User: Which sequence fits this backbone?
């Protein structure tokens, strides 16, 4: 079998498998966003799905090595120039892909560790020095990451005793009636300056349509004490200072509900205080339209999920992937790699999930 033929076969099987998997989800659940199979089924199919993807990537790397070796073999007059197909090599690559996939799924569904981050803001007042914020992004509470998982996440968050808790979208997957038991532990989240959130694209997805699914989740999360900032802001009193926390909608709702509107979100907010913005995707600060933001919290990228492929995710998100970005002299952006991920592709390979514990300090 010639070089690159194996790669073609692997990737064709990948697309067939992915198509069958998503078609089954759509036919059975009327949605790609949430699959209500038992967790063990989702984990096993996740390993199989990941193994096929990784097998294709490993085969591609192997074929690239063979192509590099072809001129060497020709120079050395070794025959044949093309390498024959080897069952032993195929079995070895398959085993490696399966082991990597199993590890990747384990990394995806485990309870995330706490990542401590210090962010310096030039205009931070002394009162807010060492202000502590926990950011939870991309929880994707679902049949894959159910109540037993979110209970442990909540325990870790409460142990941090933060001043504020922020949820930056993609909190759930599925309809309220399917997730009502799983999301209940979120009601235990509390901080002295509140629990605030913005919506992500997955809050819109559901069998009932974008608008109805979003409305149902906004009401339910409000009942749990999580206040969604939907193109709006709040002004909090922290000691002798004021702190603005704003949130915008997600662009997937454009034409169905309400598009992201930073001017509306910050309209009337005090100009002489620290302004925090919650935006699920990391791009909106590029379109601030004259509004000042000191620090934006985002997620959505999942850190790329698979090391080596994260550069593709970075390019598709305007160069943002994970970590702290200095956008201007006074504006900062923090992108979380997320605490969870979509159950349709539960794989993290050397890109760990995180509960982000952020401390603010004054500085450049």
Assistant:
């Amino acid at each position: 079998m010639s070089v690159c033929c194996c790669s073609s076969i692997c990737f064709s099987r990948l697309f067939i498998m992915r198509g069958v998997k998503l078609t089954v989800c759509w036919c059975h659940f009327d949605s790609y966003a949430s699959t209500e199979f038992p967790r063990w089924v989702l984990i096993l199919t996740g390993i199989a799905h990941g193994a096929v993807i990784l097998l294709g990537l490993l085969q591609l790397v192997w074929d690239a090595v063979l192509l590099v070796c072809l001129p060497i073999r020709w120079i050395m007059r070794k025959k044949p120039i093309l390498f024959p197909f080897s069952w032993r090599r195929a079995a070895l690559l398959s085993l490696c892909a399966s082991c990597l996939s199993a590890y990747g799924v384990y990394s995806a569904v485990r309870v995330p560790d706490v990542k401590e981050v210090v962010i310096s803001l030039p205009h931070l007042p002394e009162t807010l020095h060492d202000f502590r914020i926990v950011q939870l992004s991309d929880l994707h509470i679902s049949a894959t990451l159910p109540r037993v998982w979110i209970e442990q996440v909540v325990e870790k968050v409460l142990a941090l005793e933060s001043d504020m808790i922020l949820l930056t979208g993609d909190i759930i997957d599925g309809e309220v009636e399917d997730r009502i038991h799983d999301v209940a532990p979120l009601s235990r989240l509390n901080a002295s300056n509140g629990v605030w959130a913005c919506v992500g694209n997955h809050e819109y997805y559901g069998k009932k349509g974008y608008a109805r699914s979003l409305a149902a989740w906004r009401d339910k999360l409000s009942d749990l004490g999580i206040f969604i900032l939907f193109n709006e802001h709040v002004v909090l009193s922290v000691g002798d200072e004021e702190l603005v926390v704003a949130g915008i909608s997600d662009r997937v709702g454009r034409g169905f509900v309400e598009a992201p509107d930073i001017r509306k979100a910050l309209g009337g907010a005090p100009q002489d205080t620290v302004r925090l913005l919650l935006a699920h995707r990391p791009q909106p600060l590029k379109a601030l339209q004259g509004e000042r933001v000191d620090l934006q919290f985002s997620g959505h990228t999942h850190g790329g999920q698979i090391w080596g492929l994260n550069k593709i995710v970075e390019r598709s998100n305007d160069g943002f992937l994970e970590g702290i970005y200095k956008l201007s002299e006074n504006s900062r952006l923090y992108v979380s790699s997320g605490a969870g991920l979509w159950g349709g592709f539960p794989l993290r390979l050397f890109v760990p999930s995180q509960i982000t514990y952020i401390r603010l300090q004054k500085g450049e």
In short: Residues 1-5, 26-30 have pLDDT under 50 and may be disordered. The two ends are 58 Å apart (CA to CA). The chain is about 35% helix and 20% strand.
